[in-house]
C-alpha cells in the first residue's frame, strides 16, 4: 500500500505543480512500478496503448485535417451570418459554432480559431460606433450657425466687426459637449462589456461542448478507459460507447451551454437584456462585414469536401457500430473485436492517402493547376507535383497533443498500480464514512470538489487522479461505479474561474479583453450552476441510459445484495427508485 501511495502522491504533486513536463510525469510508472515490485514493465506499458488511447488519437488526427483545410472557419462564419444583428444573437452566433466544433475538435483549437474571428467582429463594431460619436461631437461644437450677435469695436486702424456667440448659445454648446462626452463614455462602457461577454462566451462554449461526445475532451476518454478496465476485471460489459454517450452527454452539454449564454446576458446586459445596445445601422454593418468575410472564403475546396465527407462518415460509423436499440455493423465481427477506435484509426489512415486536390482525370479543362498544397512539403512515395495528400505525418506530428496521449496512458497505469498494490482498497475503507449520505449527495460533493480542483490543474490530470477514488468508493458503498464516475469525469471540464483552468480560458485571457476578477465574478456562479445541472442529469438521464439503478452482482462477489436508496432523487420526487 505504501509503495502505491508513494507513486500516486509523487505523480499527483508533479502533475499539479508541473515540476517537470506533464508528459514526462506520465512516464514515471514505467520505471517506478517495476522497481518497487508493484507491476512488471510489460503490464505497465500495455496501459499506454489501450483501445481508448487509440480512439483519442484517431479523433485528434481527424480534427487536424479539419483545421488544415479551414473547414472549421467556414462553419463558424456561416453560423455567424445566420444570426440576427443584436448583441444576444451575435453572442449566440459566436458561442454555438464554438460549442459544436469542440465536440469533435480539441477545445484549444476551437478557441484559438474563434479568437481572430472575434477580433474582426469587435474591430468592426468599434469602427461603426465610436467614430460616429467623435464626428457628432465636432459637429455640435464647431458647427457654424446664425444664432450670434454682431459687435462693433474701435481699433487703431479703424472699425472692426466681430461675430460673437450669444451667452445662451455658449451655455447650450457646453451642455451639448457634456452630453456628447457622456454618451461616448456610455458607448465605450457598452463596448467593453461586449468584449467581455464575447470573450467569455468562447471559452465557456468550448468547455461545455467537449462534454457532448465521448471524444470531445480528454476526461471523457479517460472515464471510458477506467470503466472498461474496471468492468473487464469482473468480466462485465461496460456499456459506454460513442453512440450511447450522446444520450447523456449531448443534452447535458447543451443545457450547460444555454445556461452560460443566458447568464452572460443577465450579468453584463442587465436591463438591456431584451434590447439592442447599439442601433440597427451599426449592427447591420457588422452583419455585412461577417457576410463579406464568409464570401471571401469562396466555394468549398475539394479538400474541404473530402474532409467533410470523412468527418460525417466517421460520426456515422461511431453511432451505428452499436446503437443499442438495434444491431449495428459491429455484429458482423466476433464479439469484442471491433471498438470505437477501429473506425477512428481507419478514417485517420485514409486521410494520408486521399488527395487534397482533384486528380487530373477529374478536373475540368479550364481548371488551373493547384499552387498551394494543403499538406506541407515533404518526401513521400508519390512525387509532390503529382500527388498531395490531405495529411502528412509531418503535420500530424506537429499538431497532435502527444502530452495528453501520454497523460492518459500514465493515468491508466497509475490506476492499475493502485489496484495491485492494495491502495485502492485502503482508500475505499477510509471513505466509507460517507456511507450514511444519499448517493446523489456523494455525487454532488465529488463533482463540486473536482470542479474546484480542475480550476488550478489540468482537467486530464484531475480526472486521472479522482476517477479511481470514485470507483473504489462506489464499490465500497455498493453503488454502481458509473453513478459516481460520470459526474467526476464531466465536472473535470467545468473550469470557469481562472485563466489557468483550461487552455480556452488562457487563450481568451491572453487577448487582453478580460481580467482575472472578471472571470472570477461570473465564473463562480457558472461553476455552481454547471455542477447542479450535471448532478441532476446524472441522477436522471444517466441512470436511465446506463441502468445505474442496480449494483452489478459481480462487484460484490456474486452475492445477492441490493441497496435501497429511496432518497436518491429527492429533487424529482422519485421516492420509489432503488439501486
Automatic annotation (TrEMBL):
UniProt keyword annotation of Transport present: yes
**Organism whose genome encodes this protein:** Sinanodonta woodiana
| Protein keywords | Membrane, Transmembrane, Transmembrane helix, Transport
Q: Where are the transmembrane segments?
A: 6-36, 48-66, 89-118, 197-222, 242-264, 297-321, 341-358, 433-450, 482-502, 522-548
User: What top-level branch of life does the organism fall under?
Assistant: Eukaryota
The Gene Ontology terms for molecular function here are: succinate transmembrane transporter activity
Q: Does the keyword DNA damage apply?
A: no
Topology term for the membrane: Multi-pass membrane protein
Q: Which family does it belong to?
A: Belongs to the SLC13A/DASS transporter (TC 2.A.47) family. NADC subfamily.
**What residue ranges carry the coiled-coil annotation?**
none
UniProt-listed InterPro entries: Na/sul_symport_CS, SLC13A/DASS
CDD domains, A to Z: SLC13_permease
Q: What's in the GO CC field?
A: membrane
Subcellular location per UniProt equals:
Membrane
Q: What is this protein called?
A: Solute carrier family 13 member 5
